[in-house]
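Rotation project, supervised by the postdoc (A.L.). Task for the rotation student: set up a whole-complex structure prediction and record inputs and outputs verbatim in this book. Inputs entered:
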Amino acid sequence: MECLIQTENVSKTYNARRPDEFRALEDISLRIGQGEVVVLKGPSGSGKTTLLSLIGCMSRPTAGSILVAGKNVAKLPERFLTRTRQRTFGFIFQQFNLLRDITVMENVLLPLYPRETRIGEMQERGRTLLVQLGIESKQHSKVYQLSGGEQQRVAIARALINDPEIVIADEPTAHLDSKLSVDLLGILDNINRMGKTILIATHDPLVYEHPLITRTISMRDGRIEGVSTP
Amino acid sequence: MRHLKILEYALSSLWRRKYKNMAIILVYAFTIAVLASILFLTHALKTEASFLLAEAPELVVQRVSAGRHELIPLEYGDRIRKIPGVAEVHPRFWGYYYDALVEANYTLLEANADHTPLEMLDGHLPAAPGECAIGSGVAAVRKIGPGDDLILVDSTNMGIVFEVTGVFRSPSDLLTNDLVILDRADLIEFFGTPPDLATDISVRVNNPKEINTIAEKIKRQMPDSRPISRSEILRTYAAVFNWRSGMMLSVFAAALVAFCILAWDKATGISAEEKREIGILKAVGWETSDILELKFWEGMAVSLTSLLLGLLAAYVHVFFLGATVLTPVIKGWSVLFPTFRLIPFIDPYQILVIGFLTVPPYVASTVIPSWKAAITDPETAMRG
Amino acid sequence: MILHPGILALTCGTALVLLMMIYASALAVKIVLRWDFSSSSEEQLVLERKSYLVSTIVNYALGFEVLSLFLFIFTLDEIHSLFVGAMCATGSLNANPIGWYALYAKIVAFFAAALWIALNYLDGKAEDFPLVKTKFRWLLLLTPLIGLELYLQVAYFLGLHPEIITSCCGSLFSSAGNGIAAELAGLPAKSMMVAFYAAGVLFLLGALPCLRRPSASFRYLFTLLAALFFTLAIAAIVSFISLYIYELPTHHCPFDIFQKNYHFIGYPLYLCLFGGTLFGLMPGLFQGIKRIPSLKQEMERMEKKWVLLAVLLISSFILIVSWPILFGHFKLADYPSFIF
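Outputs recorded:
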């Protein structure tokens, strides 16, 4: 199995050398292979989200190295971090993070605006995804007119619009009831079948006990506590 | 492609926050309208003045005594006529008249003066003693028209009756508004001008390039004379108008500063909603420079919309409403007030100047706030 | 001093740009002193983000410089009627010779700002910020230049007294006058023409080895030729190109060609000349950057583009100015006294 993400002794300290110094992550080393579905499990404040944002090229670590598809992103300037993020990752956020007063289609296409994709092609891709996710009829609705489950699907469509290799989901079931959570896992399963690597942070047993998961990494106080493979 | 899409997004984002943006656009447009009104008005007056002065004699010779304008001996005219290069010499008679009845100043001018533009006259110029032609301003304040009588009080305090034979049409304005044109003999008698003196002398020159030379010769031969060339008058007009509009602009700069503070404040106080939006954009792959570009397009759209609205408002204000708000300040010297329509114009230079006066301050007051917004950490989207 | 709206706009605008540039320079000093790319500290991140602000400000400043060049010339054209004998912008400039220096300062500021933005662009192409210190040090030179520009501009406008009798373009650029401008006009048109076209051909030929060979000396030569061509082109516009455009053997003014009477030909003409010169200057000036490993490849790619752009723009310029010479009604040969 090809290694897609590799972190080596990664630490992240906020407000370094100040009284409110906070060590969010310490000495994290892990490898994630292509096609894996990995869960980061742990109570809130254990550093799951911080680790996701470091791997997802949203911020840089204080120490250590992070290789994404063989490229060290730990020292990249913001511009290149963003570029890597744009091309490699799709994000599903805890509270969907959709813009409420624009249409579903516009939300889905957001990541493509600053790229050179032609508008026609963008819309073609958006429509295909919305069809796959079964919310094509809603493409011209405003987000605030949608139900929670539909919003979740819009968020997923947006995460997939740039055809990422890796999908990162942060507490994706936090705002969903169990039926919708099961639906979501079904969708993630499909995404995984498309060959995408999935990285989920959660403390919802429904997620980390799902057969889809290839590996569970438990975290506590910014450290890895243990790794289990079902 | 990328830039177009960001522009499209900027426009739709402005539209989404239309009420908030409307407020800033209205204030911005108002500031621009004020500045543009000043520029339009002075520019229109300036063109108008030069347009009318084009008909004025190339050279006017006055006599100066004790530093004041004095009546000039007719004999000076004969001496000027002898200077080589001089084509024609005409003594002119004119003066001011204060009408206590309506508290206004009129300019009294002799008829048949070669320089009076006639196309704008309803009726005809006085052809016989006892007749007069008046400007539309005079007609309005005295409530008279062709066929009516105009009574003026002469230098011996006698009321003299003139029959109005013509009224100047209002579009011809600055110079005719307060005019009363009388027969030459009537005028001389009215003012009690001594027979061998005139108010000043107009001179036509064969070769316009020689005006300055001839003016010099006149000055040398008659040291108490003051030759004034048309271009000098034009230049003075231009300088006065420039100065006035510059002054007014400096005064209204305060309005601009106030607007910048507002713009700064609006740009700094971005709502939580907007902050969240930028966080999301950055999280889904927008770069800092993309957000800066977004903000640039937003600023451009706001500026250009306001510029257009402001220019339009100023255009209507100056050319259709007669600059009602500003005229008292700019034209101030005249008591009898012309209510003429200015000739509308669109001058790219004026628009460029207005743009230069108003857009850079707006850009400067929003650049730091937009940068602050642009560096929003993408991680904030994860933290919620 | 004339309180003219255009003058007010220029002065306030330049002052505003200077203020922003001073602020940017203060940030630049901080960045140069504290920059440590190897550090992962939050301070470093803050500095990186501040560098965005600095480049945004300089971008706006460049935009202002370009537009203000036009506004400056148009304003001169507007106020020429205030000066006895002034017939166009040139007359206004002669009313107070500092105006010429203000104009030169504006042109230099334009090139400097444009070059800085190019440098900034290159820096953004590499993943290790190789040019940060260099570019922010150069910025510290750009700011005083804008300050100088403001000073000269204000000194020029303050020194303008509408009463002063100035020579109009006719007499300024006529061969009888003295001063630099008159010297340009007095240059014999025929030899000037030969020099101009020779420099043009040399410049275009100089592009060939730059596209084929990697040697640095060809780039330096190309840049030198660009500078030479720019100077000669300006001289040529005053000396003979203007004559063909105006179709008058005595009208040498380089600004009137912006006017409608001449079909606004001045805009594409100067755009091509300035743009072409800018791209012509870059290969030589930025030669040192090739030594930076992370930029070497990018530089080689960009350099080809610059050379091609310079060739394209300068050839367009030569075409535009040659058109009236080849196909216009006006023939300088009809006025033998002006040729030699």
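Student's summary: Chain C touches chain A at residues 37-38, 40-42, 45, 48-49, 124, 127-129 (CB under 8 Å).
Supervisor addendum: Chain C has two domains: 1-167, 173-340.
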